[in-house]
Amino acid sequence: xxxxxxxxxxxxxxxxxxxxxxxxxxxxxxxxxxxxxxxxxxxxxxxxxxxxxxxxxxxxxxxxxxxxxxxxxxxxxxxxxxxxxxxxxxxxxxxxxxxxxxxxxxxxxxxxxxxxxxxxxxxxxxxxxxxxxxxxxxxxxxxxxxxxxxx
Length: 151
Hints:
Elements: E1 2-3, E2 9-10, E3 21-22, E4 26-27, E5 33-40, E6 47-53, H1 56-64, E7 70-79, H2 81-84, E8 90-102, E9 105-115, E10 120-124, E11 136-140, H3 141-144
Antiparallel strand pairs: 1-4, 2-3, 5-6, 5-7, 7-8, 8-9, 8-11, 9-10
């Protein structure tokens, strides 16, 4: 989860709007997170917005907002050292995010992250002795993103 501090709030934008702007945010957990590049239509051409998400549910909710005027261009995953096996955080493009549930305990889910450079990371755990449900592709770059051609 990201935290904000009142001293980091930037007072600009439209007066009386619901939006708030921050010069920085703080990551409060040592877990992976998502950097999502989105695009939207506007009169002067495509605009871009970038979302920092810490939960798969938030990524799924953002994917549901996809329409002719707002779409995801790509998703990057930031992995901490305890997941990527190095001594620092790494950022990789997400090709697929797959969920595999334990058929005897549906609250037990393993997530597989297929990344660029053929990297594969897994989080969560399910018992090897229990049956697994069919893998469910939660995100696929091929299926869930759209690139505007650059002319």
